[in-house]
Design a protein that fits this description.
Layout (H helix, E strand, L loop, with lengths): L1 H4 L4 H8 L1 H18 L3 H24 L5 H21 L13 H32 L2 H14 L1 H23 L4 H25 L1 H8 L8 H11 L5 H10 L3 H23 L3 H6 L1 H20 L3 H30 L5 H23 L3 H29 L1
């Protein structure tokens, strides 16, 4: 790796990063067991503590001039904390004893699941690797920053939902739920938030980047917009693997990745010779292709047709269009200097929120009653607690 990038400083960073592999077998297994048992409260406590320690160590070492090694050591410190806490929460310590019980099933599933992970990790890293080798690290920085902004939704929502999706799917199917209906319902709910968010980000990319990163980063505005267009097709990304596992076909998850990712890597590799914007533009081609392949394999098991997908996403598409009208007007006013970036972004957020809510009501979107139920629970919970407290005191 050091030879490939021609950066001697990577040697120390890679050496320290490998310490995480010592801890991963413990933390990953216990995390999976807690998710299976729906113990998300304990997982949240462990993750929060680990993130705080990681941030604290990284900032402290950065102030002590540890440079790029600061976040690397911070990551190791965070992994140590989460591993210690998870082991403390683990009730069954016998899981740490080596065993060959039912090893054929474990090895079979592990090979397929591990293969999916390896090829997806390499795919996610490939654009930076290609750009660093063919162009320079400045191009890597621009691309990485654009990806970070484009994936804000995934970090805020997708990564929160991902640990919950698989246990929730298994719980519903165990209770007699129809997996096809669960899948289509999940698509309808996700696209109602995923598509409007990415559309808003694409339209308001310039003021967002100007405020968030500063005017020196405006070069990545077209990159973010092109990536947002590509990411619109990934509304099924967080559902694909859990659904295929639920139907007992993790093998198809690996086949899907082997079909869609190598051609995508080839497109990215060729695009990297034409610059960072070409790599970003390749997302418009590669990401819909990956989504189509994943949907094809899922459709084979759940008997889903394109009409079913259209029915699940139609209302979300209308909601996206209606909520983007005011945002587009604000973007034009910012572009021509009628509004400042801050004021334009604020008005765009207000307009998008109002139009989104009104369009949800007009279209009678299935997400709306769930939002109402969640809001009712949030606002009534304090009153219920107060009522219970008052009742206990009166009995006392």
């Amino acid at each position: 790796m050091v030879w490939f990038f021609k950066q001697e400083g990577l040697k120390a960073g890679i050496a320290v990063s490998t310490l995480n592999f010592v801890l991963s077998p413990f933390s990953i297994v216990i995390s999976a067991l807690l998710r299976r048992d729906m113990e998300f409260g304990r997982l949240a406590i462990c993750s929060l503590a680990a993130n705080l320690v990681s941030i604290g160590v990284s900032i402290t070492l950065a102030l002590l001039h540890y440079s790029y090694m600061a976040p690397i050591w911070g990551s190791v410190a965070g992994n140590i904390i989460i591993t210690v806490l998870l082991v403390g929460f683990c009730k069954n310590r016998r899981i740490f004893r080596p065993s060959l019980s039912e090893y054929p099933d474990v090895i079979s599933f592990g090979l397929y699941s591990g293969g999916v992970t390896v090829i997806n990790v390499f795919y996610n890293l490939a654009p930076q690797i290609f750009l660093a080798r063919i162009l320079d690290f400045a191009a890597v920085g621009l691309y990485s920053r654009a990806v970070g902004i484009t994936q804000v939704f995934d970090k805020l929502v997708g990564q929160v939902l991902s640990p919950v999706i698989m246990p929730a799917i298994f719980a519903q199917t165990k209770a007699g739920g129809n997996l096809k209906h669960i899948y289509l319902d999940a698509i309808a709910l996700l696209t109602a938030v995923h598509w409007p968010f990415l559309t808003f980000l694409a339209i308001m990319a310039e003021p967002i980047i100007s405020i968030w990163l500063g005017p020196t980063w405006l070069e990545i505005v077209p990159l973010v917009r092109m990536m947002c267009i590509g990411y619109l097709s990934l509304f099924v990304a967080c559902l694909s693997y859990p659904i295929l596992v639920a139907v007992g076909s993790v093998r198809d998850a690996l086949i899907s990745s082997l079909i869609s990712l190598p051609p995508s890597l080839l497109v990215i590799f060729v695009a990297s010779f034409f610059g960072v914007q070409a790599v970003a533009a390749s997302a418009i081609l590669t990401l819909p292709f990956q989504a189509a392949v994943a949907i094809y394999f899922i459709a084979r098991h759940l008997d889903i047709g394109w009409r079913d997908l259209f029915g699940a996403t139609f209302k979300s598409a209308i909601v996206t269009l209606m909520s983007s009208v005011g945002v587009a007007v604000c973007a034009v006013m910012v572009e021509y200097g009628v509004l400042s970036s801050v004021l334009g972004l604020g008005l765009a957020c207000l307009s998008a929120g109002i139009c989104w809510l009104l369009s949800m009501m007009v279209m009678e979107h299935p997400l709306l009653p769930r939002l109402q139920l969640a809001a009712t629970g949030i606002f009534t919970m304090p009153f219920l607690r107060f009522a219970g407290y008052a009742k206990r005191n009166s009995l006392g």
